[in-house]
């Protein structure tokens, strides 16, 4: 997964929280995410998708406003009062929240309400990209065999599911192996994986492709060492 650096929360959310915080008599109100109006949720989701560069927070696949839902990093069932409306706890994830959307066997749906503050390698952790290793065939493993948190995260999110594994493999093949690339081209490709396009989006599975580029560059280095 790709590290998500939170940006400023949308003004619509700030205004709604301010309005809900007290009633006309100045007394505290009881309220939460379930009370959030549809227009505020839409603005929050738009902000999250933009913030994440159009990628699902857990899988890295492309998402759109219509094709994602607002995900609570700390599940609503575990949140204290108002915590389920805090912007830092909200992410955008595949799939859509529309009624009738099929269950997804990996990612947010697979995770359900699992949350372990110490074990969960989530996209708000700065080390998340380094702790999970993606192989050229799309398979995923902890970067370190001793990393129980990464192993548990992979298991809970079903990041080893065959469907998402194949999507990662296809992304690597198309970016890196569809044609023979020079060392300079691979380096440019790797740099581009940290950059957004003209629409503000990252390339789907950019963090996966970046790791593949790093391994490919080591082959060039090893080849030079043999000469």
Describe what this molecule looks like in 3D:
The radius of gyration is 20 Å and the shape is elongated. The protein has one domain (11-220). It has helices at 11-21, 38-51, 108-111, 128-131, 148-157, 162-177, 183-192, 206-225; strands spanning 69-72, 90-93, 132-134, 140-142. Strands 1-2 form a two-stranded antiparallel sheet. A two-stranded antiparallel sheet has the order 3-4. The two termini are 37 Å apart. Strand 3 and strand 4 form a beta hairpin. The protein has 227 residues and is mainly alpha-helical.
Q: Tally the structural domains.
A: 1
Structural class: mainly alpha
Low-confidence stretches: none
**End-to-end C-alpha gap:** 37 Å
The number of helices is 8
Keyphrases for this structure?
single chain; 227 residues; mainly alpha; two-stranded antiparallel sheet; 8 helices
Question: How do the helices and strands line up, and which of them pair or pack?
Answer:
Blueprint: H1 11-21, H2 38-51, E1 69-72, E2 90-93, H3 108-111, H4 128-131, E3 132-134, E4 140-142, H5 148-157, H6 162-177, H7 183-192, H8 206-225
Antiparallel strand pairs: 1-2, 3-4
Helix pairs in contact: 6-8, 7-8
How would you briefly describe this protein structure?
It contains 8 helices and 4 strands, in the order ααββααββαααα. Helix 6 crosses helix 8 and helix 7 (183-192) runs antiparallel to helix 8. With 227 residues, the chain is mainly alpha-helical.
């Amino acid at each position: 997964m790709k590290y998500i650096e939170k940006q400023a929360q949308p003004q619509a959310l700030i205004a709604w929280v301010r309005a809900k915080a007290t009633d006309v008599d100045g007394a505290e109100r009881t309220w939460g995410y379930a009370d959030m109006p549809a227009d505020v949720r839409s603005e929050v989701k738009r902000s999250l998708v933009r913030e994440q560069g159009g990628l699902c927070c857990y899988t890295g696949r492309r998402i759109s406003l219509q094709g994602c839902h607002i995900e609570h990093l700390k599940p609503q069932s575990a949140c204290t009062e108002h915590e389920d409306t805090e912007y830092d706890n909200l992410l955008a994830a595949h799939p859509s929240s529309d009624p009738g959307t099929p269950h997804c066997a990996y990612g947010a749906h697979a995770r359900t309400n699992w949350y372990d503050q110490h074990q969960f390698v989530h996209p708000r952790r700065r080390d998340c990209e380094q702790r999970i290793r993606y192989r050229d065939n799309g398979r995923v493993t902890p970067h370190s065999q001793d990393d129980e948190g990464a192993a548990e995260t992979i298991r809970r999110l079903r990041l080893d599911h065959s469907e998402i594994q194949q999507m990662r493999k296809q992304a690597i093949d198309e970016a890196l192996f569809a044609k023979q690339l020079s060392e300079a081209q691979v380096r440019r490709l790797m740099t581009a994986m940290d950059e957004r396009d003209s629409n503000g989006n990252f390339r789907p599975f950019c963090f996966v492709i970046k790791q593949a580029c790093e391994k490919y560059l080591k082959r060039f280095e090893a080849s030079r060492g043999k000469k």
